Every structure is written in C-alpha cells, then in structure tokens.
Amino acid sequence: MPTEQPTEQTDHATRRSAAPHGDLPASDRAARRAVALFPLLVIAAGAVGLLWPVRFTGWAPGVPWLLGVVMFSMGLTLTPPDFTAVARRPWAVGLGLAAHYVIMPGLGWLIATALHLPPQLAAGVILVGCAPSGTASNVVTFLARGDVALSVSVATVSTVLAPLVTPPLTLLLAGQFLDVDAGVMVTDILRTVLLPVVAGLVVRVAAGRFVDRVLRVLPWVSALTIAVIVLVVVSGSAAAIKDAAALVLLAVVLHNGLGLALGYASGRLARLGAPASRAMAFEVGMQNSGLAASLATAHFSPAAALPAAVFSVWHNVSGAVVAAFMARSARRER
C-alpha cells in the first residue's frame, strides 16, 4: 500500500481557518476557544433542557433549520482547493471515507446489540454511527498536529455523500429495531445538509472578501447553534434521560472511544504516516451528531435523539483530550 506523507497541501490547509471545516490562520484563536468551550456550552444547554423541558419542547420543528445554519457556516469556510485536494490524494481520502462509513456504523450496531438497548436508543446509536464526520474534527486534528488537509478532504466528501450513504446504512442496520423511511431521510439530508453547504460555498466564492472578515465568528455561530439543538433534544427526551442516562453514556463512550482507536489504527495499517493517522482518528471517531439528532427527532422520537445529544458533548471532550495527548507525543518524536 502506498505511503502518504504530509504535502504542501497539508501546509496550505493548516494555515486556513477552521470554523468548523476549513482554513486555520485567521480564525485560529476563535476556533480553539470555541472547541475548548463547546462542551461547556452543550452541558449548560442540556442542563437547562433537563431542568425546564416544558419551555422548549415546542422548539422541535426548528431543529432542521438550526442544523442548516451549522452546515451553511461549514460551506462558508470551504474553498475550491478543498476539493482539488481530494483529487491529489484519492487513496488516503478513499480510505478515510471507507473507514468512516464502515467502522462507526458497524460499531453502532454492535454496541446496540451487545448492550441490548431498547429499540429507540439502539436506532439512535446506529444513526449517530451512520452520520458524516463531526463539525469540529478539522480543528481537533489541527490541535493534535495531524494532517489537516486530509481531515478537511474526508470531512467535506463524507458530508457531500451523506444523502447517498446515511439513509441506506441506517435502513440496513437500524431497520431491525424500528421502521426506517430511507427515501424521506434522503430528502431531509439534502435539505438540511447538502443545500446549505452548497449555498455557503457559493457565497464564499462570490463574496470571499466579506466572508473572510467574519470567519472568526463562525466557530461561535456553529457552537451556539449546536448547543440550542442539544437543548431542544434534551427537553424532548427529559424523561428518557432519567431512565437510561447511564446506559446511553456507556454506549456513547464505547462508540466514540473505539472509533478514535480504530480510525488511528486504520491509518497506521495503511502506512499513511503519523500525521495522517491522527487525522483518521478524528474523522472516524467524531460524528455530525447535530445531523443525527435532527434525523432522529424527525424520523424516530425524542428518545432516539438522546444518544446524539450525549455524543455532542462527549466526542468534543474526548477529542480535545486525545488531541492534547497526540500533540505532546508529536513534539516528543521531533
């Protein structure tokens, strides 16, 4: 198998801002702060939803629109070089996509089955596994001294392919637990994910100078919006949380931890090199839990959205911890 080493594209991507996907110099500080404070924001939002659920249960129809805001922000951070990078490194990007859409869905099904999760929670865990890469994965890869160019490429393509991949995978793996309407799910993902991303990209190309001025604000827009999504999801499943909080947390910790480990291992086995393997860890182990929560709320129930809400908090905490460990190891290797 070919060995992938950091390239000029890696350096280019590392200098770009990341908010949640994209460039890393202009909004670097804002992105770091957003990633550091994001778990606290989400925990606070979840606590509010748990303590005063009645006040927010009527907000559920707004969740897809909120997700659209997050994905539009992602589109604003993308540039044409993000797509040309895919053509330059097809082997590494293809491996990242295969690992992401095989490891996490498979782990979701295995964990749901092994823990004998109730049908709603099982479907929620599997749906998290079938989602595309997480919106903070690029920033965490940068903090871990990983291959940011590869991270951006895998995250971008996994998001673009989500309408084609997420629904059939969910039908295949979660269909034994609940009825899954894959056709309607495709439409929802196109409307709430792909169209906002494309719209953001068009705005970036057409008004790049203006967008550059607001890049440092985008991490906070995404963080606050996802926090509101968690608030709504938690308020809608407050009763389920009290009954199954420990079980859901165990499932989420196993899912995320094994995903990070197997993602890193897949990069190492393919001889991609240490920086690319670090990127693989986060592109596999971190999921777009906002999308999973939105789809679970729309297609299953608030209880099915609970794993996505917990995942939103946990994968950012674990990602920051693992990134710090990897960055320290990378400094020692020099």
TrEMBL record:
Protein's membrane topology: Multi-pass membrane protein
Highest taxon listed in the record's lineage: Bacteria
Localization, UniProt: Membrane
Record's GO cellular component terms: membrane
Alphabetical keyword list: Membrane, Transmembrane, Transmembrane helix
PANTHER family in UniProt: P3 PROTEIN-RELATED, SODIUM-BILE ACID COTRANSPORTER
Identification of the protein by name: Bile acid:sodium symporter
Organism: Streptomyces chattanoogensis
